Amino acid sequence: NAMFSWQRTAFHFQPQRNWMNDPDGPLYHMGWYHLFYQYNPDSAVWGNITWGHAVSRDLIHWLYLPLAMVPDRPFDINGVWTGSATMLPDGKIMMLYTGDTDKKVQVQNLAHPANLSDPLLLDWIKYARNPVLVPPTNIAPKDFRDPSTAWIGLDGRWRVTIGAKINKTGFALVYTTTDFIHFKKNAHHLHSVPGTGMWECVDFYPVSINGSKGLPTSVNGPGVKHVLKASIDDTKVDHYALGTYFVENDTWVPDNPKEDVGIGLRVDYGRYYASKSFYDPVKERRVLWGWINETDTENDDLKKGWASVQTIPREVTFDKKTGTNILQRPVEEIESLRLRGSEFEGIVLKPGSVLPLNISSATQLDIIAEFEIEPLGSEEIDEDSVGCGGGAIDRIALGPFGLLTIADDTLSELTPIFFRLSNSSHQNSTAFFCADETRSSKAPEVKKTVYGAEVPVLSDEKLSMRVLVDHSIIESFGQGGRRVITSRVYPTEAIYGAARLFLFNNATAINIKASLKIWELNSAFIRPFPFDQSL
Ligand code: DQQ
């Protein structure tokens, strides 16, 4: 189906056709990264949920494989829902996933690869006596799902956490097991937060406070904090918090109760949900996937024949400088796609100016931009209007300024990615990092949002952003990935050769000095695995 084919991405993962949602069970095995995903093989809307499967050598160039698991048993006939992989020390792989049963009850099931010596892990065997876990009696049958990757506790038993809710309190249950078949429920929850509703796709992993490497899921001790992430069903937002995991009773306590799970930081402030991480033993890093949902109508998705994209896999580390957040950056392998590079040094932009950046194509880009501000002195600084305002047209003394991405020549379509500050000595300022979709598309019935977040800027830092542009996806990383915003846009004019990139300064009281490195990115040419030929 060629309709809206210019919206297809070139280096983000998406199936050839039909509906996709959550990433599932990411893992590394015998030279290959595996991604499974919630998939409807029959349609471009959610339903018949099956596990799609793809492999890659480098997390960027993917090959489609046959479906891994289909809904074909009483314990998952209404859907093979989200789950996670656990790599055992002896090399076995335990895949736990939620099944929606013949009676529409959410149960947890076990599956494992039929042949561990197959690098592609093509065949999966569902444990015959599934389910291995049914909802506890105090939890409703539809409020119990998405088992995490397991980790080992003090007593040597494995722990798995599963999202649930009672009334409006969302929480993460903990079960222990030795064989992934028999489970014991802990008396304590890992954590719970009143008012947050159902927790989906709970992710729980350690980060190193001092080191720069990622940590395997079972690591704990001094020098370690734990990230607890829940996908909040009521708001469709992925929230996380940093905290301490107490091994004695498998509970987790947030560093800052005011920024608890579901009420504090977001993994991504844009269009993003159901994220899941895994530990990459090759590069010793924690890699995070997330689902970019559509913001058009189901009708349009049916017409174009596909829906949803996965984010670029991101490496997650602890932000040693702030101590209060994680950092996310695209995995370094994305740099292998870099083609022509252009550098722009110290471009000065006066208030109210727009400057085209002379690059040959602007649909597939990797952009690194730094900004310094030069106060003009004369005007008064208004500090009352912080935030992202009504978007890039909403001018205050110190913003907005930044990039106009996926824009056409006449600026009839554009998606600004920008900063907006409250105080000229940006050491003490409140900086907002924003993405404005309001003019991103002329298509009717597209939801367009001004996304944004307050981002810490330390006294020795310039304002900086890294932006990946891929036809209809813009992933924007502010201040080294302290805050991330993913946009899904639907350009009708700013497509292929007509797409441009601009710098802009809509602040009224400052000049902007911008320095940029911009690379055009090659396509990743995602295609079916070539079973008949050698690679
Ligand atoms: N998607 C899955 C569920 C999960 C939800 C079903 C999150 O397992 O809770 O497709 O997007």
Automatic annotation (TrEMBL):
Cell location: Membrane; Vacuole lumen
Record key words, sorted: Glycosidase, Hydrolase, Membrane, Signal-anchor, Transmembrane, Transmembrane helix, Vacuole, Zymogen
Keyword Transit peptide: no
Main EC class the enzyme belongs to: hydrolase
Reactions listed under catalytic activity: Hydrolysis of terminal non-reducing beta-D-fructofuranoside residues in beta-D-fructofuranosides
Molecular function in Gene Ontology: beta-fructofuranosidase activity
Membrane topology qualifier: Single-pass type II membrane protein
GO cellular component, one term: vacuolar lumen
Entry's family note: Belongs to the glycosyl hydrolase 32 family.
Protein name as catalogued: Acid beta-fructofuranosidase
Species: Acacia crassicarpa (northern wattle)
